[in-house]
Design a protein that fits this description.
The chain has 426 residues and is an alpha/beta fold. It contains 18 helices and eight strands. The strands form two sheets. Strands 3-5-6-7-4-8 form a six-stranded mixed sheet, with helices on both faces. A two-stranded antiparallel sheet has the order 1-2. Helices cover 45% and strands 10% of the residues.
């Protein structure tokens, strides 16, 4: 079955709609295949349940448990092996089994985002079934009534572990073990419904959007993180040298994960330098500032940032005066490329399984200071020669300070000096 056929499989043509323009975008082929797989699996399960219910001569009426129902429970008639055998031997299901195989070929095809998600986070098939059940419900909320019917309980119009176990033939395999990638990466959210009721599962909305081809910033990262613009590097920045060193670590089969620690004073261009390195590695750079982060939210932020990095192939950059206070979570497999922006006096604990590559940002050369002042403050060229040279000879100045001064629209030597003194006090 081709992806196009999978997308059209569940559509019934109607000449009445041929000439109507609908204000929505057709569902993608993989999502359509997931929906159809869930529906077909539900058909199998429903036929089996109806067979069992038909064998119960006396239902006992609403609010009562009949003798036949109790006998069915005691005899364990609704057991996974019996259901699987009955489906396998039922000739009416033979052609639909072939369709299921074709749908799985689409779902796990080479260009499938769902298959990519499973590869990135090492999601086993049983967990992938839970993921599909949740994703299908977000694609088609009408499935909630189907899920309630399958669980013979109108209050369970949602995904539960028991639903997935029986719907996809997982038997009694646990779907809630602590080392599940769905739980570690919070791809699936768990909600307590009521005492003695099964846990309710939903798919993280950001992941659902990504599966449909929509890449957006995780809500947990809004106001903390942003993509860095790639600006032209300064001439004395060790871009190639640093790139070669990082590549050597990435090519190391034993480790292959690097944390580039970029050390230098505030305003020297550390984040821009990191963005240049990331661009040469074929990645964007997501910068997260931890200064306003509540320490209790560090692990959640760290997880969401790495999840974003894997999904969007963006390198990570961490910046903050409090970074040394945080413990880097060991259960989260770090993205291969991270940058950390530090001031010279800052230190950072080691991270297991990650090689630290330290980079010292060089001070601006006389030629670079001359060029930057001339570029960002062209009025300075007309100053008396001694004043302009005095400005250029200030060795401790950084590119960030030059940009901050010129942003204030100053024009005279005295105004520039006043701005620089003010900055030095902050």
């Amino acid at each position: 079955m081709s992806p196009t056929e999978a997308a059209q499989y569940d559509q019934q043509p109607d000449a009445h709609f041929d000439s109507v323009d609908f204000p929505f975008v057709d569902i993608d082929p993989v999502s359509a295949a997931i929906l159809q797989r869930v529906r077909l699996k539900a058909k199998f399960r429903i036929e089996w349940l109806r067979k069992l219910w038909a064998e119960e001569a006396n239902s006992g009426g609403a609010g009562f448990v009949s003798h036949d129902e109790v006998d069915a429970i005691l005899e364990h008639r609704d057991n996974p092996k019996a259901e699987a055998l009955w489906i396998q031997q039922n000739p009416d299901f033979a052609s639909q089994q072939a369709v299921l195989d074709q749908l799985e070929d689409v779902i796990y095809g080479e260009d499938s985002r769902f298959a990519m998600l499973c590869r990135i986070f090492s999601i086993p098939r049983e967990d992938a079934d839970l993921l599909q059940a949740c994703y299908a419900l977000q694609l088609d909320p009408g499935l909630s009534r189907l899920y309630a019917y399958l669980q013979d309980n109108p209050a369970r119009a949602h995904v539960t572990a028991e639903l997935v176990q029986r719907l996809f033939g997982c038997g009694y395999h646990s779907l809630r073990h602590s080392e599940s990638p769905l739980r570690i990466w919070r791809l699936i959210q768990e909600h307590t419904v009521a005492p003695n009721e099964p846990v309710l599962f939903t798919l993280d909305p950001m992941v659902a959007d990504w599966l449909q081809g929509v890449s957006s910033l995780d809500p947990q990262l809004v106001e903390k993180s942003a993509l860095c613009e790639v600006l032209p590097p300064l001439e004395n920045w060790p871009v190639q040298e640093s790139l070669d060193g990082i590549k050597r670590h990435l090519d190391d089969e034993a480790r292959g994960r690097v944390r580039a620690i970029i050390s230098g004073p505030e305003g020297c261009g550390r984040s821009s330098f990191a963005a240049n390195i990331a661009a040469k590695l074929g990645m964007t750079l997501l910068l997260t500032n931890t200064d306003t982060l509540n320490p209790d939210n560090w692990e959640q932020t760290y997880r969401c940032a790495h999840r974003q990095a894997y999904l969007d192939r963006t390198a990570l950059c961490w910046k903050g005066r409090n970074l040394h206070n945080f413990r880097w979570p060991s259960q989260i497999t770090p993205f291969p490329v991270q940058f950390v922006v530090l001031s010279p006096e800052q230190t950072l604990p080691t991270q297991p399984g990650v090689v630290d590559h330290r980079i010292e940002m060089p001070a601006l050369s006389h030629v670079e200071r001359h060029a930057l002042w001339s570029r960002y403050l062209p009025e300075s060229i007309a100053w008396p020669k001694g004043k302009f040279e005095q400005l250029v000879n200030q060795h401790q100045i950084t590119v960030g300070e030059i940009a901050a001064v010129t942003a204030k629209r100053v024009s005279t030597f005295d105004e520039v000096q006043a701005c620089l003194r003010e900055q030095s006090h902050h």
